[in-house]
Each structure stands twice: as structure tokens, then as C-alpha cells.
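Translate sequence into C-alpha cells.
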Amino acid sequence: MTLALGLGLSASAQSATTNIQLILDASGSMLGKLPDGQTRIASAKATLTQFLGGLNADPGLNVGMRIYGAGLKAGAQCEDSVLVTPMKGFDKAALQTQVTAATPKGATPIVYSLMQAANDFPKDSSRKVIVLVTDGEESCGGKLNDAGAMFKKLGIEVDIRIIGIDLNEKARKSFEGVGTFENTRSGKELGEALGRATAAAQTGKYAVSGPKSAGAGSEVVIKWTGPNNPGDYVTVVKRGAPVGKYTNYFYTKAGNPGKLLAPLEPGEYELRYSSEKANPNPTLASALITLTPPTYGLSSSKSAGAGSEIEVKWTGPNNPGDYVTVVQKGAPVGKYTTYFYTSAGSPGKLIVPLDAGEYELRYSSEKANPNPTLASIPITLTAPKYGLTAPVSAKPGSRIQVKWTGPNNPGDYVTVVPKGTPVGQYKDYFYTRNGNPGTLNIPAQPGIYEIRYSSEKASPNPTLSSVNLEVR
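Result follows.
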């Protein structure tokens, strides 16, 4: 699991002071155990100690700590939140001592703590960051929007980073729309999350951000902060993928923000800012993104004439490279014939093959190899009736009228050629769409000819019906 919180804490990199407030949940529920057997408070203490140990002192870096639920305000559980270390410089030893001493006892006054934190920050242009580590949702009736309103009222812009410890779904949803959120389920995951925050604090010049969730296969807009060195790039990989792994990517030189096509498979992923200038390519910043499964569907006629033009309605994400095609039933994945891109709209129009039989309409995508079948429905193509009625003879250079019977599919035409001419060749012709009967110019050379009903929708253009004509 990888999440670079992208705090960018180095004051020198930001050319301004950075104030960080760590808020530690010491409510009674922190005595519960994680799936790995470690208590939540033990995990939080260990990882916060590691986090603090990894931060480098900087003249413009101020780190403070607030603890709630530890019984530091007797008899006031929903106001039991204390700034135990002010944001004045970076006293690593003092902060680690406070972490070690925290004893879980009381409630979870998250909103009260955030509102108090708003008053802890100086009213200046410094960068302000809150890192909240919690194992539950608000338990004192506070509304997270109220905390946001407090920051706004005070004119304070704060980057809020929330790291959940094994939160249930209800608790996770309670943090939606509040800063940047990640849920962890083990001491290892929590340690990795704060460890990457440490890396971001040391470099201070890398960050990557995008939506918290997006449809699998969609085009995602990503903002980045970095030196834009030659070979710097942003990619998307499975959560926890090895360092140096990459899939779709864009080079930072392409601009900011950049656009990235997300993988087709839903799940937990990471956006990573990386560089080609080391092996393996290092992860310099990252952020989590959840790819959700899109809904795919197709609807059309259950049967149609072979070679005809049909309308197909589709449901899908309309990602770049998504298309609808028609193939024989059971054709290998990735096979296609005529097609239209979903970007053309719904319904789309599709000219089906000339051969009658059992087929499939498929919603597919170019963004994987072979192109996957994301939705399909069957369709039966029936054999049309073809026929021609024309004079049995004509004078050289004359004009004759020819009646035809056929489906009048797009690209259907009638032509006249010398008898025995290879299939697909043509001379003078008319499209069936121009009316019935149609007019043909007869060649000037006497001989035996054929009038052919043909179609442009196969190569070579097939002869679907023919009659002989003597030119004399």
C-alpha cells in the first residue's frame, strides 16, 4: 500500500514557513485490535514516533501536536482535546514523549478538535497542514462542515490529511469531502502511509493529486508539483505495486495538469510521480485513487438483414477508445469488423456483415490488448433476397434501365462488366439508393456482358445477383 500524502513540508522548498499540527485519537476505542493483532493505539504510537523520527528540522518548519480522548480534561469528554505541543519549531523529543504518554480513555470529539486547531494556527500566509490519525467517526455530535466553516471564517486555508485506522464503511463515508482521506488496516499500512509523508516532508518539492475515485478506463486529470526534470513522469499502478512499476503515463514536460488513461480493471490504485533517472524509477510522490466499475450495456434489433445498417444503443463510460463492433458468434476476444466509436454518440450506426448467420454486438475498448469484450448481445443476420430485371440485349453505347430487388444497404450498387470479369471489378454503375429502376450506360464494344448487383461492404465487392446482357 502506497500513499504519499504530498505534504510538501520543507519550508525552504516552499519558500515560506510551514506549520503542521498532528492530531492523535486517544479515545477508548483505540484499545481495540487491528486485524494484524496489534492494538490501534500501539500501532499509532509506533508509526507516529517513526514519522517524527524521520522529519528533518528546518528553520521554517513548526510541528505541534493535539491529542483528544486521553482524559486530559477531566469531566469534559466532548471537549477533551488539548494542544500538548505548540507549533513552535520542531522539538522531536517532546513530541515523541507526548505520543508515548497518550492513554486511550474517552470520546471522539473530532470536530471540536479541528475547530480548536483552527485557532492554533497563526493568521498569516504560512502553509498549514493537519494530519489527523483516528480509528472512528465523530462521537460528540459535531458536524465536519462546521469545522470547515470555522477555517473559512478565520480566513485560514488548511491542508487536512486524515488517516483512518481500520474504519468501518459508515466512518469512512463520514470523512467524504474532508481533505485527503486514507483508510489503513494494519500497523504496516499505517507505518507506510506516515513513512511516505516523511519522504514528502524531506523533499518538499514533489506532489501529485487527482480525483479520489474515477471510472475504470476513464481519462483522469492529474495535477503535479515537481522540478519537471527530463524523464519525470506520472503513472498509475495497482496499490502497493513495486517501486519502478508503471502502466499508462505522461511526462511532466507535457504540461500541468496532465491527462492519464486509467486501467480498465476496477480496484485500488496509486498515482505516482516518478523519474527515469534512477533504476528502479523512484516514487517521488503518490496519491490513492479508487477505480470504480462502469456499467456496460447494449441494445439493438434481435435480427437484421445481412449487410444492412442498424442502430445500436449503448451504456458505458464512453472512455477514449471505446467502440462497438459486430463479430461472428464465439469470435476470439479482440476480434472486430465494422465498428463505431462510442464518442460518436448513442445510438450509433453499424453496417453488419454480408454473410447471414449468428453474430454478436460487442462493446469493447482499445485500451487493453486484446481489446476486451465489456458487454455483448446476440444478433441474427438474415439473408436478403437479390434480383435484377433488365433487357436481354442492347445496342453499343445505349442507355438501359435496370430494376433491382435487394436490401438497398449502404454501398449497394448495380454495374455492367464483360462476362467473366473477376469478382469486385466494375465499370459504369449506379447506387441502389438513387432509385429503382436505375440507369446504366452500355459499353460501346459489342459482346456478352453481365449486369451485377454488388456491395462495397466487402472486399472484393461480391456479386450478389447477376443477369446476362448481349451488346449487339
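Note: The longest helix spans residues 187-203.
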